[in-house]
Amino acid sequence: MREEEARPASASLRDITRKHPKKGHMMHSDPELSMASSMRDDLSIEVSHRKSCFSAYDTTRLSGEGSPMTMSPWCQNSYFNQSYPWENYETENSNVSVKRLPQNALVGCIVREEGHIYSLAACRDLLYTGSESKNIRVWKNLHEFSAFKSNSGLVKAIIICGDKIFTGHQDGKVRIWKAQAKNPDIHKRSGTLPTFIDIFKCSIKPKNYVEVKRNKTSVWIKHGDAISSLSMNQEKGLLYSASWDKTFKVWKVENSKCLESVIAHEDAVNSIVAGANDMIFTGSADGSVKVWRREVHNKGTKHSLEQTLLSQECAVTSLVIDGSHSILYCGSSDGLVNFWECEKELKHGGVLKGHKLAILCLAASGNLLFSGSADRNICVWKRVEGSAHSCLSVLTGHTGPVKCLAVEKDLQTSNADDQRWLLYSGSLDKSVKVWSVSEQSPDFSEFQQGDDNGDFILPAR
Q: CA-to-CA distance for 451 and 343, rounded, in angstroms?
């Protein structure tokens, strides 16, 4: 079933305008769905912006007070205001060293006409992409390396743990894949969560049935709606799956058992992140971000609600925690990114304002945060001091909403003086773009004014 057919085209816009769905009907705030069905015409973004202008987002805020976007030198009409193809500079400026290339540049683009890109995962030199075609494709050096296909269900989430690849699908199942040792380009499915045997055993007892929709029940170990997000606690060997059925489930990777199912929110759970100290964070279409604490309970686990970090009218669409587990970021359908500092206690650090439409995805690595939006742009944020963040640049080039992001350290160009990252962005324009991103801010003294428009050009060598 195609995703557009599975959800009404206006579902996300309705969710942004109200906090709770009507009784008896589950409505989901997955902002890309309305975009996916309407982006076929040139007015899709304009219409979405017009219908969501009631929100907390101020259309003039880019020139507003205190915005990291406007305070950043990158917001000037400068040479670095846009992203440019890497290869153009190698040919047109062959006398310029690599270190003098733009800090954030487009390395390449992958386009395969088989539907919108919904999920990405990067591991070493491999990139995994999931789309509405039900295919999971594997790319190496921007060339297709392998591919494998699920029987049903759009690929909504992908994570990699060791030699296993976990994929979350529209049909509410998690599938497990492994590459063959002798033929790494061949991937075989090694399991499905929940397993058929566990479903059969669970279905025998009436007490194991729960209501998943009005007048519909199912065993508690099965998700009753699409899986929206996956996260892994590698130390404990636990996999977390979040779903539009308002729950998250906990799986023991070692034996594929479902240890627990938690009714977490009043509406669809759009994102889940496993943090340090047995903490779990969930974000929902009901506008809340919740913190859960894991405790050992007999042979399983028990997650109890510790606190609610955020409660707002607009939907929470994405969560991510940085590599040091010191900051939690939250993207919302109003285009804002809230963040909390995770020290002895969670303290709200501020709000990042840089997008005109809904945040659809977040990724973090090193000192950088990347936010992808329905406005087709990617903002690159850097934590500079304490809780202060600056917007280093805005990556442009996608012609559709940016739905998913993945980031890896660039081992070929990174050094102690200039840490670079490879950022992968998947979009509803059916493409994946690859960017080389630096943590450094440019030294503008190395550039000179080149024309009457005030654009910067590379100096002659």
A: 49
Residue pair 432/127 in contact (Cβ under 8 Å)? The answer is yes
Alpha helix ranges (H) inside 18-126: 32-38, 44-51, 68-71, 86-92
166 with 159: CB under 8 angstroms? yes
Alpha helices in 217-358 (DSSP H): none
Q: Is the dihedral of CA 396, 397, 401, 404 positive or negative?
A: negative
Task: Give the DSSP letter of residue 442.
Answer: P
The first and second tokens of residue 293, run together, are 């604490």
Q: Decide if 272 contacts 282 (C-beta within 8 A).
A: yes
Q: Could you tell me which of 48, 65, 55, 54 has the C-alpha nearest to residue 9?
A: 48
Tens digits of per-residue pLDDT, 407-442? 998 877 656 677 889 999 999 999 999 999 988 865
Please give the Cα distance from 271 to 26 (Å, whole number): 17
Q: How many whole angstroms separate alpha carbon 424 and alpha carbon 408?
A: 8
* Rounded-to-10 torsion of CA 42, 392, 437, 426: -30
d(CA 221, CA 210): 10
Would the pLDDT of 294 be above 80? Answer: yes
Range of weakest confidence among 225-229, 272-276, 342-346: 342-346
Question: Residue 332's closest CA among 12, 102, 7?
Answer: 12
Q: What are the two backbone dihedrals, phi and then psi, of residue 125, each rounded to the nearest 5 degrees? A: -100, 15
Query: What type of residue is 429?
Result: D
For the stretch 22-59, pLDDT in tens is: 333 444 545 444 444 444 333 333 333 333 332 333 33
Helix (H) or strand (E) holding 285: none
